[in-house]
Sequence to fold (235 residues):
Amino acid sequence: MKERVLLVLVGGAVILSLAACSGLTQNLDVVGKESVASFGAVLDTVGNSVSLDEMNGGWSLAAPDGTVRFIWSENYKTSPLHDVMLEFDAQPFVDAGLDTGKLPETIVYYEDKLMVGAKLGEDELTYSGDATPIASYEQIVKLYRDNVGYHTALDHYNIDLGGGNLFEWAKDMSVNSQTKENQDKDIVYVLNPEPFIAAGVDPEKVEGWVYATVSVDIDGKPTDVYKFLKPFDLK
Fold:
């Protein structure tokens, strides 16, 4: 009888320990939790630049110059193509030498637009209240936390769109503006230039996009890689 009681107690202790570890892991997810408030601040700042995107089944955050949009889905089960994506004007890339016929299947070309993105899953998303832009972002944090990152060099959060493409935003826009390097980078649309270069683009001639190196962590080591960047100051 004593052995049985001991086993039950030990088993209970293991369960409590696992539960405690699970709770600790959730509490330690500072990036995931704080990114929600930070993204919400961006949405509040851009105002009417955030809108419902019926064609893609989600929400759109348009750049101030209207040349690029970050789009995230309201329901992954009904998303027509991607769940998170960038849609941007194709003309600057065509003018810089792009042969659209040489683009990989991962980059969609339609109606003078290009689109890159990722399919996160097939989840039928449910909401405790109304589906809103910030509530849909919270679903990414909840279900696909690995797609939410933190860019140490710029003090930015980001959404991984697959293939080296990202949407980034400042962790704190008020602090961001005080750093000379980050003054014009409250939000940044980020493209991997490699498939475009392979399709004929001269990266130095893409009007409206900055071709520059960015420091990223690869296997725990800071590494400079080239990206196309379209940064904006929202203030």
Summary: Residues 48-232 form one domain. Residues 2-27 form the longest helix (26 residues). Residues 1-27 have pLDDT under 50 and may be disordered. DSSP finds six helices and twelve strands in the chain.
